[in-house]
Amino acid sequence: MAVPIAVLDCDLLLYGRGHRTLDRFKLEDVTDEYLVSTYGFPRQFICYLVDLLGATLSRPTQRSRAISPETQILAALGFYTSGSFQTRMGDAIGISQASMSRCVANVTEALVERASQFIHFPKDEATVQTLKDDFYGLAGMPGVLGVVDCTHVAIKAPNAEDLSYVNRKGLHSLNCLMVCDSRGVLLSAETHWPGSLPDCAVLEQATLTSQFETELHKDGWLLGDSSFLLRTWLMTPLHIPETPAEYRYNMAHSATHNVIERTFRTIRSRFRCLDGSKGTLQYSPEKSSHIILACCVLHNISLQHGLDVWSAPATGHMEQSEEEYEQMESVDSEACRVRQELLLTHFS
Q: What region holds the DDE Tnp4 domain (predicted)?
């Protein structure tokens, strides 16, 4: 005779049939110190994310009980800031590692959907002028709208045949093009470029270039290092400075451009899933790109909430772009004229 087998639902036994969400973990039951040490952020910041993403993360589900937005956000923050799906972290909020993985995917997509809300250049004249004034206050470089650079994030090999993601060190990576302001707030983040592309090729194809060539380069410029070509809207250092004015220009350029390098270090320190200390991102290039962008969104939101951009120690192995490039002096005569005028007007 066939014996019926009952499949026990542990959550049902624990919470009863009327329970609709897995709310084993309550923010109000733990201290801020615990939240920061485990999930990387204080209570106020986490509550803001719940308000911001709650509706998206509460979409209808086929499951009998959905995981609450609060729990999904904690799971994702735990991964972003630690770089691993730790069993103890899942246990703390009452979900399995498989559920944690789904939570990371859900929260990542919700943040990516809002990227343009938090990562963008200012448009009104007063804010643009404040942006320039803040940069000028760093080292006396006028007209700066942002500092730009690339950084590599290691990912798993997509497949044996695809060499487009193999960088010059022989590692698989994404080459991420970013721009920030003087406080480290990201103004642009393109995180999907294959690691084999040099910085100059990334910029050539980037949305950033079309933006500046069509609308944003009036009365100002970005600062980039010598891996980029000089353009009317992108000031690069002089390869071989000769005059005192050229030396002063290069020194001001270097001191100002250093902000993006510090910003990369801070993002790496805060979001350990990107720094390589727990291994490469174990996702496809597209999903890895979305995780990086989600971390960029969180970086900007954290600055809005007064979390100090420079407070975290620099650790880990997120690769700064250290390309062996030929010094590329621009053949753009107008760009050369703009830089020369800048030298004469402000550094002579």
A: 148-300
Query: Rounded to two decimals, what is the model's pTM?
Result: 0.87
Q: How far is CA 18 from CA 23, 26, 70, in A?
A: 13, 19, 19
> Which residue is it, tokens 């909430």?
305
What token pair was written down for 203? 């910029």
φ, ψ at 235 (rounded to 5°):
-90, 130
* Among 182, 164, 161, 184, CA closest to 174: 164
Contact at 8 Å (CB) between 188 and 178? Answer: yes
- Encode pLDDT of 50-94 as tens digits: 999 999 998 665 454 578 899 999 999 999 998 876 655 666 677
3-class DSSP state of 119: coil
Per-residue H/E/C for 249-302: HHHHHHHHHHHHHHHHHHHHHHCHHHCCCCCCECCCHHHHHHHHHHHHHHHHHH
Using an 8 Å Cβ cutoff, are 230 and 339 in contact?
yes
Q: Residue 71 has which token pair?
A: 């729990």
Of 315, 203, 323, 306, the closest CA to residue 267 belongs to 315
The kind and range of the H/E element at 325 are: none
- Cα distance between residue 82 and residue 34, in whole Å: 14
Instruction: Enumerate residues 6+ apart whose C-beta is below 8 A from 165.
Output: 155, 157, 158, 172, 173, 174, 194, 195, 196, 285
- Angle between helix axes 69-82 and 32-39 (nearest 10 degrees) is 60
